[in-house]
Each structure stands twice: as structure tokens, then as C-alpha cells.
Amino acid sequence: MMGASKAFGLLASDRRRRLLILLCENESVEIPGAVSCRGDAAPRTASGAERTSSRSRRLEALRLYHADLPKLAAADLIDWERGSGRVARGPRFEEVEPLLDVLASNAAEVPQEIV
Q1: What is the pLDDT of residues 14-47, one digit of tens each?
Q2: Backbone phi and psi for residue 12, each to the nearest 5 degrees, phi listed first
Q3: Residue 49 backbone phi and psi in degrees, to 5
Q4: CB within 10 Å: which end of the chain, N or C, has fewer?
Q5: How much is the pTM?
């Protein structure tokens, strides 16, 4: 059984929390295309705001790919098929599912940045 500190530590990241909440609703999900194309550059004709937005998306994808997904996989919360870009519930997913259900079902009362 996973301790509360470890569970809350794994749920501390917005990206990890959002992915796990998606897995509450679906058996598996496909990783966003941005992760698959993590080396893409912003178009040369893009405005400064578009380049910044594109750069932010790539940075988020890199964090997901290199930090969040490996951390969740190491904790057995997800099964991550790197080749196919699919993430499914892992063998220990049900240990954090009640916490995720509470967050999702009380979304109106919980600050938006938490859910």
C-alpha cells in the first residue's frame, strides 16, 4: 500500500494529476502529439507570442516525457508504451484513484489549478 506522502508527492505536479484524472475516465490514453514531436521548432514566420507559446508547449512535453511519465511508471501507477505513445492504468493505479475521484468530483469547490 502506498503511503499518503508518496501519493500526494506523485499528485503534486499538474501534468501528472491531469493525466491520472484522464485515466480515471479511460482505460488508456494517447500521449499528446507534442510529446512525440518534442524536437520540432517554431515556424520562422511565427510571431513572438506564437514562438513563446510553441516553446512553452515543447517544454511542457519534455517535462512530461522525461520527468512525469517515468516517475508515474516507476511508481507502477501507469503502464507507458513509449513506442506507441499510449499510457494505461498501472498495477497500483487503484491506490490513488480514490484521491483522484475526490478531486474530480469536487472540482467546483477545489481551486482550478489543483484539478
Answers
A1: 889 889 999 999 999 998 743 443 344 444 455 5
A2: -65, -30
A3: -65, -40
A4: N
A5: 0.76
